[in-house]
Each structure stands twice: as structure tokens, then as C-alpha cells.
Amino acid sequence: MDQRDAILTRLLDLHPKKIDLSLGRTEWLLAEMGHPERRLPPIIHVAGTNGKGSTLAFLRAILEAAGQRVHVYTSPHLLRFNERIRLAGTLVDDARLQKALEDCERANGQRPVTFFEITTVAAFTLFAEEPADWLLLETGLGGRYDSTNVIESPKATIITSISRDHPEFLGDTIEKIAYEKAGIFKRGAPAIIGFQQHDGARDVLEREARRVGAPLSIAGEDFHIREENGRFVYEDERGLLDLPLPRLPGRHQQANAAGAIAALRAVAPHIGAEHIEAGLTRAEWPARLQLLSRGRVADLVPPGSEVWLDGGHNDDGGRVLAEAMAQFEEKNARPLVFVCGAQVTKDIRALIKHFVGLAGEVVAVPVEGEHKSWPPEEIAALACAEGMRSAAAQSVEEALAIIAQRSYAVPPRILIAGSLYLAAGVLALNGSVIE
Q1: Where would you find the membrane-spanning parts of this chain (predicted)?
Q2: Domain of 82: which CATH number?
């Protein structure tokens, strides 16, 4: 274990709970660190259940296409912690990260603080030290009491699609979850409300934005999108943009791209259509319908197979993944095999139901390293109860071996999804690198 990992391990033990939503501990530590949150570049703050990271990926790609220096803060990471902190376009190096963590650890002492809180303070410290034009900031969980919400005056806020997730922290209804997400809205900062599947979520978001005095831009009302002749058309009061389809596949990514465009049209009018076009075609976001065409995973499946990896893990995540697989099927028919693993805190039945009649087989796997993983046998039984062919494997490698032994008329399309932790393990198995 190197020194950086040793510090990260120590920080995990500073609070008895992994999650304890509050702003007080973060505010206290930021004060001890000289208030770096007051020396940050203009911020676009993003919350939501699904699509936050993809929206940030589009924002970053568009801004960088316009020659802007962009900081990015996201979570969780997939392969290494450094992925959470991007300084002016480059992942933070080990030396700078280690120093920031050590400084925060020293300032905090042995006071209770969660891992996310103290590492957020470290990130803000790094962002304040490095000049940039923008900071793209993703909430960790919720919004109102998320550590990132210590910022007072973002340039804009975005709420992506909201669905049921983390009810033990955010509430057991869509309306309660939306209320917590809406906590990032600030007076005077344009609030972009992305496309919502639930009217209750949109109603709460609108109400809260108006209550705090945040100018509203609502998907489907103030900006519209459509796919036409293989192009992505975005339209708002400023006019129409005829754009290429986003590089990130799936129609849900068009909705995420629209939220990013709406925010930039509100606060960065110097960003031109040519920059938006370039950003849409360059955006990258690992483990979000990522095609694994090379590496060990690709070597383990039948020749000619497609392997898609996604971290989708809830009801709405399952819906958009199933819609994407149906799109792929329309363009190029192949048998679909769903390799699925999830934590027991996730509604795996809701995820699987979207693939009834679409996936020919579900192969269940554990999420390795996660003690709260669904047993593969139970996932397989749930799939069987839905009338789907199913099998249980004790690892992704074993699942791919099972698939390799099947007989298919044409090479299959394989979707691996259900957990970002599962996706991380697959990327590690594949020998992938995130830069």
C-alpha cells in the first residue's frame, strides 16, 4: 500500500458512519483550511439520480473545445481515487493529492468527519490552488446536505433525471428525493431542470427553484430536443442547433447533453455552436454504455460479440439501458445476454423487469469485494420468476465462460450492469486505464 492509499484508508475510519449527511463538519474543516471554497472559479453544480456524470462529461468536453480550463469533481471513482479530481483537464497526480489529504488530515485531527467530507475539502483546496475558468461540481448524495453544497454562489445548477435511490437517506418518495436534490438551487443562479420521468419530481423542483429565486429553464418547456435524419436537434428561445448525435450512446444521453447545453446557453453565451458540436463528439465517460472492444474481457467472449458495460443500478437506470439495447437491436439484431450484479440495497427486481422479452438470458454475478452484494443464486431466481432463462456464476470471468459455451446463431450482445462497483471490477479485469 502506497502513502496515498494509506491516508485514504485512515480517513475512512474518522467517522463511525460511511454516510452522515450534514454541512457542519465540512464548513468547520474548510474554515480550518482557510476557506478554499471562497477562491474557486465559476461553478456549475449538478445533482440528480441518473445522468450527473454524463452531463458533466458533456459540459467538460464543450468547454474544453472552446479553449477553457476546466476543473471537475465527481464520485465515486472506478479504478483509483484520483479520477474524482480533475485539475484543468488532467487527473490530479499522486503527489499533489497526497499533500492535500495530509493537510486536511492534520487540520481535522481526530474529529469525526466522513470520508466524503474530508476528501471534498481536499478537492476544494486543490481547485483553489490551480487556476481554471470553470469548476464542474457533482453532488455525492442528495444535494441539500451534501458536502459540495457549501458553495454559496454557483453560476448555474442542473438537476438531472430523478428516480428512487438511497431512500434511507433521501426519503421514500420521488417528491422527498426531489426536495433534497433541489437544495442546490441558489438565488439568482439559473436552475436547469432536466427531463423527468415523474411529474411529482418536476413539480417539486419547479416549486423550490421559484421559492429561492432561481431563474428556471425546464426541459420540454424552455428547451426541446429531437432526433431527426440521424442528427440531434436542440431548440430554445435563442434558436435551433442542428448537431451530431452525442458520442455517448443511448437516447438518454441526448437528454443529458441537452441539460449541459441549456446551462451553457444560460451562463456562457460565448460558447458557440461549433464548440457544442465538437464537445458532443468528444465526450467520454467510462462505464456508461462503454463498449469493451479490446482487453481481457473481449478475449473471453465468443469472437465477434459485443460487450457493453454500464453502472446503471436502479429502476430508471434499467429503463434507459433496456431502451438503448432495444435501439441496438433495431439497428443490428443479436441475442442479448444480461450479466447482472448489485448490492442488496438496490431493487434488483425492478432493474431486471425492464429486460423481460429483451434479454435471452440473465447471468447473475456477485459484486466482488462488496459484502452487501446480492447472492447470484437469488438474482437468478428472481430472473427465473420473471420467465427469463438464468444462470448463476461466482465471478464475471465465470459468467463470460458460461456465455462462451452457449451456441448462438450470431455472436451475442452482452450487457454487464447493475453496479458501479461491478463496473469497476470489470474495467480492472479488462486492464482498462482511465486518464
Answers
A1: none
A2: 3.40.1190.10
Mean pLDDT of the chain: 95
Let me know whether 309 and 263 are in one domain.
Answer: no
Residues 300 and 377 in one domain: yes
CA distances from 159 to 44, 174, 205 (A): 11, 14, 8
Task: Report, as an integer, the average pLDDT of 105-122.
Answer: 96
CA 364/CA 115 separation, integer angstroms: 31
What are the grid coordinates assigned to 94, written together?
499522486
In a domain, 435, yes or no: no
Residue 172 exposed, middle or buried by CB count within 10 Å (0-12, 13-18, 19+) = exposed
Residue 61 cell numbers, joined: 468536453
Grid coordinates representing 127 are 481547485
In which residue are the cell numbers 470520508 written?
115
The DSSP code for 27 is: H
Nearest to 196 by CA among 215, 177, 169: 177
pLDDT band at 1 (very low <50, low <70, confident <90, very high): low
Mean pLDDT, range 384-411, rounded to an integer = 96
Could you list the residue range(s) of the whole structural domain that residue 84 is in? 3-282
Is the dihedral angle over the CA atoms 387, 391, 395, 401 positive or is it negative?
negative
Rounded to two decimals, the pTM is 0.96
pLDDT class for 169, splitting at 50, 70, 90? confident
Q: What is the 3-state secondary structure (H, E, C) of 172-186?
A: CCHHHHHHHHHHHCC
CA distance 288 to 27: 33
C-alpha distances out from residue 333 to 103, 259, 336, 411, Å? 55, 31, 9, 10
